[in-house]
């Protein structure tokens, strides 16, 4: 005849055995995921990145002005193959110089500028970029304005938001932007490739 202590232990033992089986099953499932989907796991961002709700991993890094100059320069300097810029206001000569330096080290740099922006040094910026080997075009007039502000690096990441390439946008204004990586970048690549052929060639000017 079972003692009271044994009868009390039976439910506990059953629970522990059940929990152990669940743990083993969980470990087996995790192992199967690692074996069958290693590439997807490797492509996931670090733990501090924000994942999109999609089947593939992507990440978002927020940026806020004032104080974004270092991040923008770092992105330009990180480019290995290509930089594509579509910018509403581009008046920052230092950023133009950074893009020129990238072109001089072999990076293909293309820039679309909005010609209807009232900026005294816009033509000088365009001419300076051209002198540095950057391909420059004026945005198509089929839109009321090309108000977009984004930069694509190596077709792998994009800086997009309200930040113009101006000193005010980087050092004085409250601006918000983000660096995107992963599948969403392709949408920006597609838009740039749509806008580039319809943009007009920029030519060097004396101003």
Question: How would you sum up this structure, described in words?
Answer:
By secondary structure, the chain is an alpha+beta fold. It folds into two domains: 33 residues; 143 residues, Endonuclease, Chain A (2-Layer Sandwich), CATH 3.30.870.10. Helices cover 43% and strands 20% of the residues. It is built from seven helices and eight strands, in the order ααβαβαβαβββαβαβ. An eight-stranded mixed β-sheet has the order 1-7-6-5-2-3-4-8, sandwiched between helices. The radius of gyration is 26 Å and the shape is globular. About 16% of the residues have low confidence.
Which features characterize this protein?
8-stranded mixed sheet; alpha+beta; 43% helix; 20% strand; 2 domains; Endonuclease, Chain A
> What is the tally of helical segments?
7
As a whole number of angstroms, the C-alpha radius of gyration is 26 Å
Poorly predicted segments: 23-55
- What is the annotated CATH architecture of the largest domain? 2-Layer Sandwich
Number of strands: 8
H/E order of the elements? HHEHEHEHEEEHEHE
Give a brief rundown of this model.
The chain is 43% helix and 20% strand.
Itemize the secondary structure elements and their pairings.
Blueprint: H1 4-36, H2 38-42, E1 59-65, H3 69-78, E2 82-87, H4 93-104, E3 108-113, H5 122-131, E4 135-138, E5 149-153, E6 157-161, H6 167-171, E7 175-181, H7 185-198, E8 200-201
Parallel strand pairs: 2-3, 3-4
Antiparallel strand pairs: 1-7, 2-5, 4-8, 5-6, 6-7
Helix pairs in contact: 3-4, 4-5
